[in-house]
Design goal:
Layout (H helix, E strand, L loop, with lengths): L5 H11 L1 H18 L4 H7 L5 H33 L5 H8 L3 H11 L1 H16 L4 E3 L3 E3 L1 H26 L33 H13 L17 H23 L7 H22 L16 H29 L3 H5 L2 H23 L6 H25 L3 H4 L11 E3 L11 H8 L6 E7 L3 H20 L16 E7 L1 H11 L21 E2 L9 E2 L2 H10 L3 H9 L1 H7 L20 H11 L27 H9 L5 E8 L5 E5 L29 E2 H5 L16 E3 L2 H8 L22 E3 L8 H12 L9 E8 L14 H6 L12 H18 L1 H14 L4 E8 L17 H11 L2 H18 L11 H7 L13
Parallel strand pairs: 4-5, 4-13, 5-8, 9-10, 13-14
Antiparallel strand pairs: 1-2, 3-11, 6-7, 8-9, 8-12
């Protein structure tokens, strides 16, 4: 048989090792993309670790990923000739299969080269983002201290895995496997444990299981014969994967966004005891003799007791942590385990899965990715129809097994909401803005992830404080910001930032018992001898801004690494316990975890927002306790402003209101039955639907009475904020559970329709003022627009020739297109049309609307936070220390202070009737054409 050229062998083995190589390079590529600011809006928050524990876990799982890449590469190289009938190139074979101690250490060192680089890059990010790392709350440590601890823990873990392998694996005497392969560490580190007799019964169990499998497939590359033990590296891979999976299960309840419920707690404790008992039983029969008769094995007794004590200690620590978290609701590890760690866990599992699938399928020339994707997704194309059929045939419990849809959490109502008691925009103005001589306030908050959330909270808190402390507004009729806020319209991150501000309306007023208004603005109180930051008693501003700045990204990573992972890879869904499938999602996911974390951040020790720290402030309702229905009731009583968290219906692309008010349909609009001969009359104004109209009531009077919810639902503020901020991949598009309606739209980020929130403001005002230009309703409005950009998109003509030529050389606006750009331009054009140009459209329509209502006066103030070339705009749900400092620094800039001062100045003038008269050009229209700043005005050119 002719000898094959080595170049051919190299190409073949590079292909066989493709998944190991990709995993080995994965973190290097991720770091380079972040360093080059290609993906940094998302990845910077992931690759910047917030605490020493996060650094510890990051180092542990970085080492684990690259160790897995080494093991899978060794396995394929060692057993590839038997599997693929192609020997590995001599150099590769020597590097990965030689048992020589220097070669083994060299291979281990080479496998960890990306570890050194990625840890250096994580330390680099920590430095430029000014992160601090504290141990037990006393001293600041260098991040490398925690990296070293995590690396040593990882090496200890893999040493124990290798030790367990040497202790339990034995080749068949009749059909010995190939000579001992080079594994992770040199064999000299394990003494004579490989000679201990008899080995633990685990080896026999694995042999029995693999024998059943190998009888039905070709055993080439796996074992000598179907009845022989697996070859060493397959056995080591099995032991390694079991160890990683047990660690994965160990971390599940401890890293969840909330402490476990009672039933989950008992189940997790029982499972841990069962796993511990099974493990102890699997090693209980291991002996102390060596393979030489009458000669004891020196290592056997120590190794056996090491694993027994280790199992008992870990089980005890696990149960203690579960009970402690459950009783104190501390969720200590949720913030300690980084999102980066969740990504590494997923990458490790994917590497095991795809390298194993490739080793099996490459023999038959079957494409791995195509096959895996078909196995995963083809059943999921069928199961929705099966689930729907089972629901129709009254088998809901069976239906949920085949239902892979994602549902958001709602609160079931015993009776429908009376829409007559939910205020319309006109009724809101009549009750919340009754004085025609008094100026009132509307706020819009744009999307943009956690930066938009924190920027929104910071602006609102400073506006509230500045208005409260302005002497000119503290006359006989005090003017406060929160009492004159008529409407707040948020999108995505802006909605998340609005939530803590709105919750302050639920705080009981100390001076007027029985009412729920903002408490009097307190001053900062510090103890006599403050030694730590924890000694500070926090203010109202702290309570408003703290939750938005606190990370929720770890919760998203947890949901993705656990519940969404099993949903992806399994053909059926695991039913939930003691939950009604029709009225509640029986399985949490990353979206549920995000909403839970957003609510937890309102009162969490990690975020320094727990109630005990606000000793001078009355408690507030949390994000789950305040719902759209209760918000509507408070609005009707004059104790709350109107608000909407805007979202987008994926199926129609329409705006959907998660609001505490309703926009009435035109009187001539009707929705008859399909066989109704009455035609549907045309109308020029069909408002956006709202949650309370669609899911909490029987519908408006002129709607089809036969189409109504099966059950009635209410929505918490925390879930509403999450729905407004639903960007797929980070969080899943979700619909209401099927018990409320058989068919419902899935909600996505409100920014898909309008990233500013201005469209809902225009709709609100149009509904309140009507179309009659002779409407006598006088209204002075301060429109505050909180934007997560520099505001220039509406103050420049981005389509003129000058701007087009200025874009030359800008990589995001390349003047010439390649064939690739022709494809990406489809997505880019859709994105720019729905996000970049939307602000100009909103400003124009607002201007047109104001011109149509002479009695309407709108003064427009824009708060912007520019994202320079040297600054990263974080779109994920994690802020680094540097990014948070940039936001707080922006609040202190002259531009922001000037915008606040102009807001107060306009209110003072408007109260004295010194504002623009009805004949002057509208303020919002002049702001729209201003090329430099929309907070200044100039006459409109004729």
């Amino acid at each position: 048989m002719p000898t094959r050229p080595q170049s051919s062998q190299w190409f073949e083995y590079l292909y066989f090792l493709r998944f190991s190589i990709f995993s080995w390079l994965f973190l290097l590529v991720l770091a380079l993309l972040d360093w080059g600011n290609v993906t940094s809006s998302i990845t910077r928050g992931i690759l910047t670790l917030d605490s020493g524990w996060q650094a510890f876990y990051a180092a542990f799982f970085v080492v684990a990923l690259h160790m897995t890449a080494l093991i899978t590469a060794r396995n394929i190289t060692r057993n590839g000739e038997a599997r693929f009938l192609t020997p590995a190139p001599p150099l590769l074979d020597h590097a990965l299969t030689s048992s020589s101690t220097p070669v083994v250490w060299t291979a281990l060192a080479v496998s960890q080269i990306p570890t050194v680089f990625i840890l250096w890059y994580l330390a680099h990010n920590a430095s430029i983002e000014t992160q601090q790392y504290v141990l037990f709350g006393t001293h600041t440590y260098n991040i490398w201290f925690f990296f070293l601890a995590g690396t040593l823990a990882a090496l200890l873990f893999w040493y124990l895995v290798s030790l367990f392998y040497y202790w339990t694996y034995r080749p068949s005497p009749a059909n010995p496997s190939p000579a001992p392969a080079a594994l992770i560490f040199p064999s000299c580190m394990f003494g004579d444990i490989a000679e201990a007799e008899p080995p633990a019964r685990l080896a026999g169990f694995i042999k029995s299981v693999t024998a059943v499998v190998l009888k039905h497939i070709a055993c080439d590359g796996y074992a000598k014969t179907p009845t022989d033990p697996l070859w060493e590296l397959h056995f080591l891979s099995t032991v390694s994967l079991i160890g990683i999976f047990l660690l994965y299960l160990f971390l599940y309840p401890l890293t969840g966004p909330v402490a476990s419920s009672n039933i989950a707690l008992y189940g997790q404790i029982s499972l841990s005891l069962v796993i511990t008992a099974v493990f102890l039983a699997a090693i209980a029969d291991a002996g102390y003799e060596s393979s030489q008769p009458g000669v004891p094995c020196k290592w056997a007794r120590r190794v056996k007791w090491t694993f027994i004590l280790l199992a008992l200690i870990l089980a005890a620590l696990f149960i203690f942590a579960l009970i402690y978290d459950h009783n104190t609701h501390s969720v200590r590890l949720e913030m300690a385990f980084p999102t980066f760690g969740s990504i590494l866990v997923l990458a490790g599992f994917l590497l095991w899965f795809f390298s194993g699938a490739a080793f099996f399928l490459d023999r038959y020339r079957v494409p791995v990715l195509t096959t895996v994707l078909a196995i995963i997704f083809v059943p999921k194309l069928i199961t929705p129809h099966v689930s729907e059929s089972l629901v129709k045939n009254h088998h809901p419990r069976l239906a949920q097994i085949f239902d892979f849809d994602h549902y958001y959490t709602v609160q079931r109502l015993d009776a429908p909401v009376d829409l007559n008691k939910v205020l319309t925009p006109k009724e809101v103005l009549d009750s919340r803005a009754p004085d025609v001589e008094e100026p009132y306030i509307i706020v819009t908050a744009s999307g943009g992830g956690i930066q938009a959330a924190e920027w929104t909270s910071q602006v609102l808190a400073n506006l509230e404080s500045s208005f409260a402390l302005e002497p000119a507004l503290l006359d006989k009729k005090p003017y406060t910001f929160h009492e004159h806020l008529v409407l707040a319209s948020g999108v995505s991150g802006g909605s998340v930032g609005l939530m803590p501000f709105l919750l302050e309306y639920t705080a009981p007023d100390k001076e007027h018992p029985g009412t729920t208004l903002f408490p009097a603005q307190p001053t900062t109180v510090v103890t006599e001898e403050p030694t730590t930051a924890d000694s500070k008693q926090l203010t109202l501003t702290d309570r408003i801004t703290g939750p938005s700045a606190c990370s929720s990204l770890e919760a998203v990573g947890w949901g993705l690494a656990y519940h969404d992972l099993y949903r992806l890879i399994t053909p059926i869904r695991i039913p939930g316990l003691r939950q009604d499938y029709l009225t509640a999602d029986t399985s949490p996911d990353r979206s549920w975890a995000l909403a839970t974390a957003l609510n937890r951040n309102l009162h969490d020790e990690h975020c320094k927002t727990n109630l005990e720290r606000f000793t001078d402030l009355p408690p507030i309702t949390d994000g789950e306790g305040l719902t759209l229905k209760t918000g509507a009731e408070m609005l009707a009583k004059g104790k709350f402003p109107a608000f909407t968290f805007n979202t987008t219906a994926a199926e129609t692309g329409s705006r959907f209101l998660l609001s505490n008010y309703r926009v009435p349909r035109p009187a001539d609009l009707s929705v008859p039955l399909p066989n109704d001969p009455k035609p549907i009359p045309m109308t020029d104004f069909i408002p956006a639907e709202s949650f309370l109209q669609a899911y909490a009531s029987d519908g408006v009077a002129n709607s089809n009475p036969s189409v109504k919810p099966l059950l009635y639902a209410d929505l918490s503020l925390a879930t509403a904020a999450r729905l407004s901020a639903t960007f797929p991949i980070v969080s899943s598009g979700t619909r209401i559970p099927p018990g409320y309606t058989a068919h419902a739209y899935h909600f996505l980020d409100g920014g898909y329709f309008d990233n500013d929130g201005t469209a809902s403001v225009i709709e609100f005002l149009k509904s309140a003022l009507g179309d009659d230009p002779d409407n006598e309703r006088k209204l002075k409005l301060l429109l505050i627009e909180i934007r997560d950009d520099d505001g220039q998109v509406v103050t420049t003509d981005s389509d003129d020739l000058t701007h087009q030529n200025e874009s030359v050389g800008n990589s995001f606006k390349a003047p010439s297109w390649t064939p690739l750009t022709q494809l990406t331009g489809i997505v880019g054009g859709l994105w720019n049309a729905g996000h970049v140009s939307i602000a100009r459209r909103n400003r124009r329509e607002l201007c047109v609307f104001e011109r149509a209502h002479p009695k309407l006066e709108i003064h427009h103030i824009v708060f912007t936070i520019p994202n320079g070339a040297d600054k990263i705009s974080p779109l994920s749900w994690n802020l680094t220390s540097g990014q948070l400092a940039s936001i707080t620094d922006r609040i202190a800039t002259a531009e922001t202070k000037e915008a606040i001062a102009k807001s107060i100045e306009w209110v003072k003038n408007a109260r004295q009737n010194k504002s623009n008269n009805a004949d002057a050009p509208s303020d919002v229209c002049r702001a729209w054409v201003e090329p430099n700043s929309s907070t200044t005005t100039r006459p409109v050119k004729p």
